[in-house]
Amino acid sequence: MNSSSSKLFILSTSFLLSISSITSNSVLDNFLQCLPIHSNTSNPITNSIYVPNNSSFQYLYELRANNLRIISSSTISKPLAILTARHASHVQAAVICAKIHSIQLRIRSGGHDYEGLSYRSDIPFVILDLFNLRSIKINITSETAWVQAGATTGELYYKIAEKSKVHGFPSGVCTTLGIGGHFTGGGYGNMIPKYGLSIDNVIDACLIDVNGTIHNRKSMGEDVFWAIRGGGGTSFGVILSWKIKLVHVPRKVTVFKVQRTLDQGATDIAYSWQHIAPKLPKYLFIRLQPEPITIGNGNKTIRVSFIGQFLGRSRKLMNLMNEEFPELRLQQNDCIEMSWVESTLFWAGFTNGTSIDVLLNRVVENKVFFKTKSDYYKNVIPKQGLVMLWEMLMDIGNIFVQLNPHGGRMDEISETETAVHQRGGYLFKVQYTVYWSESDGGIGAAKRYVEMSRRLYGAMAQYASSDPREAFLNYRDLDIGCNESNDTDFGVAEVYGTKYFNNNFMRLARVKAMVDPENFFKNEQSIPPLPSSH
Ligand SMILES: Cc1cc2nc3c(=O)[nH]c(=O)nc-3n(C[C@H](O)[C@H](O)[C@H](O)COP(=O)(O)OP(=O)(O)OC[C@H]3O[C@@H](n4cnc5c(N)ncnc54)[C@H](O)[C@@H]3O)c2cc1C
Ligand SMILES: *[C@@H]1O[C@H](CO)[C@@H](O)[C@H](O)[C@H]1NC(C)=O
Ligand SMILES: *[C@@H]1O[C@H](CO)[C@@H](O)[C@H](O)[C@H]1NC(C)=O
Ligand SMILES: *[C@@H]1O[C@H](CO)[C@@H](O)[C@H](O)[C@H]1NC(C)=O
Ligand SMILES: *[C@@H]1O[C@H](CO)[C@@H](O)[C@H](O)[C@H]1NC(C)=O
Ligand SMILES: *[C@@H]1O[C@H](CO)[C@@H](O)[C@H](O)[C@H]1NC(C)=O
Ligand SMILES: *[C@@H]1O[C@H](CO)[C@@H](O)[C@H](O)[C@H]1NC(C)=O
Ligand SMILES: *[C@@H]1O[C@H](CO)[C@@H](O)[C@H](O)[C@H]1NC(C)=O
Ligand SMILES: *[C@@H]1O[C@H](CO)[C@@H](O)[C@H](O)[C@H]1NC(C)=O
Ligand SMILES: *[C@@H]1O[C@H](CO)[C@@H](O)[C@H](O)[C@H]1NC(C)=O
Question: Where are the chain's structural domains?
Fold first, then answer.
């Protein structure tokens, strides 16, 4: 390039830049001006619009952005605006106006997405935040409830307990998950052996489609209702609320957390656990959680926690454990009896005696930087595989791994019943979570730790499910499919789609083509519409 053309180049670049910033500002302005026209005048939408010059903008953005790795990254851009919907018509207006003005919407309920897809995008976007749509209406006579998307799992547990001591709901262990996002990925918790996933107990939903129309199960049709139960919400519309069927729980449940280090035979017990846990009676769930610890002399070891929940009293549990899992040597004084709602606190890591009022705390208090990857296992990991895993965990340091058993109710539900394919035939699913707190802008540490998580994932490939190597949508991982051959009809979407949904991917793409052929509702890992050539 000679000097005059390079000057021209610089000139034209800055000219283009200013044009594009004018354009994006006017696009935003047009979008913002469109909103009141399409929303209910008795519920003014203007009070729900936050643009970056608003003093609450940054606070609102971060409050429900739960992975510091995402919000600290200098390469990830912020939203043009945050719309905190307070009324269904605000959501309708957001969809209609975003479509008219070609603005990407990111829908956020609880903000727990592991990759932050509810609050980040590579293209200019607006966050549609549903956190204020959080009513929970429980009807004990019919044993049902309507729960809005912005309610948290903790609020749901609390409200159920307020009405009944013998009802509960099977969903996640963390008490700040947004019902909106959590259920669309399946929703998995410690009552899985008895009651399956959250979506297996969902009976209706309220959804706003690409035209801004509100639907219930009947008007959205069974295909869409099928797709949003496990296929991710993002691709099909905005879920306003779910109608759930409450489940029965006894007045007292028993929980325990037993820990064994390598010296105490952790490897053998963990090996047995893989055979036993997926076949336990439906009333009993035992999670396995290995993590590296440093012992007195500065040496490292692995401590494996066996965290259990029995829907019944401890004496019965003791008998059962002596029969089913004697190697664990559970003692009566390991067992803690409590009400079901108190058990949700135990699982969330609150200390004994904490008031159940903490369930009403709607945001995460101690956020960390983290990267999670996931696997499903159909075969047990041999002892040498466990030993390799332990060594890698001690090497990485800041990591925990969680093995959550399938079995029970999951074996009774067919893989086509909902969009969640992984039902019978799986022993357990695993999440590997590397976390850190170095705040060098997060960048250097993030790079290092993310690389470590990939190395571990690579090493476990020989034992995990394969062809496809499956993953759990609620443990979102943008690495999936990155370095794999994507020479398929759908490109990379077919790679991650098959990992998350296996044979259900094609049906999801067909449903997508029916209700959102222009692909308005999308993110980095959404379902693409099936090309018309199929
Ligand atoms: C600490 C922690 C513990 C967890 N424990 C569990 C667990 O025990 N079991 C389990 O299954 N999962 C668990 N998860 C994963 C969790 O279920 C998912 O991250 C889930 O997507 C969170 O939902 P959200 O509404 O909080 O997140 P968000 O980030 O708000 O949303 C997640 C995704 O769903 C989309 N979405 C959100 N709301 C809507 C809506 N109303 N309509 C349409 N699309 C929507 C978002 O755009 C995004 O793509 C855990 C996550 C964390 C961080
Ligand atoms: C507007 O909201 C009010 C109160 O929430 C409601 O009664 C009314 O039906 C709504 N109007 C429209 C057009 O949705
Ligand atoms: C910020 O936005 C809110 C909601 O739209 C509005 O009520 C408030 O006045 C705004 N504050 C500033 C400083 O602009
Ligand atoms: C903030 O931005 C909004 C929308 O772009 C604009 O109307 C308003 O005047 C701005 N306020 C300030 C104080 O800059
Ligand atoms: C609760 O459910 C019962 C049984 O279906 C029904 O008769 C009653 O009207 C419901 N109550 C409310 C407040 O909706
Ligand atoms: C601790 O490490 C030292 C040095 O590697 C080793 O000699 C010692 O046996 C270890 N102790 C235990 C309890 O493993
Ligand atoms: C938990 O707390 C209750 C009372 O708050 C007490 O009775 C019980 O012994 C405690 N259990 C444990 C294991 O500390
Ligand atoms: C993809 O490959 C590159 C180059 O080998 C590597 O650095 C990166 O970690 C890989 N990404 C994933 C997700 O495995
Ligand atoms: C598909 O794979 C090719 C070659 O590995 C890569 O260059 C391209 O970026 C991938 N496409 C997507 C969408 O990931
Ligand atoms: C949205 O509206 C268009 C145009 O009226 C229509 O063709 C399409 O079927 C509608 N989409 C849905 C999901 O109802």
Answer: 3-129, 136-248, 253-336+366-475
Q: Examine residue 124 and say whether the peptide bond preceding it is cis (omega within 30 degrees of 0).
A: no
Overall CATH class of domain 3-129: alpha beta
- The reported pTM is 0.94
**What residue's CA is closest to ligand 3, atom 7?**
47
- Band of residue 393 on the pLDDT scale cut at 50, 70, 90: very high
CA angle 476, 481, 486 (to 5 degrees): 145
Convert the pLDDT of each residue in 16-50 to its tens digit. Answer: 444 445 456 899 999 999 999 999 889 999 999 99
Task: Provide CATH code, domain 253-336+366-475.
Answer: 3.40.462.20
Q: Does residue 163 contact residue 179 with C-beta atoms inside 8 Å? A: no
Round the average pLDDT of the chain to a whole number and report it. Answer: 93
Among 448, 469, 483, name the best residue to mutate to test ligand 8's pocket (greatest count of ligand atoms within 8 A of Cβ): 483
Active-site residues, by number, are 475
pLDDT tens digits, residue range 161-211? 999 999 999 999 999 999 999 999 999 999 999 999 999 999 999 999 999
Q: Do domains 136-248 and 253-336+366-475 have the same CATH topology?
A: no
Across 9-165, the runs of DSSP E, i.e. the strands, are 49-50, 81-84, 104-108, 125-129, 136-139, 144-148
Which residue among 112, 346, 369, 515 has the greatest number of ligand 1 atoms within 8 angstroms of its CB, and so is best to mutate?
112
- Give the ligand 9 atom nearest the CA of 484: 5
Fold that domain 136-248 belongs to in CATH: 3.30.465
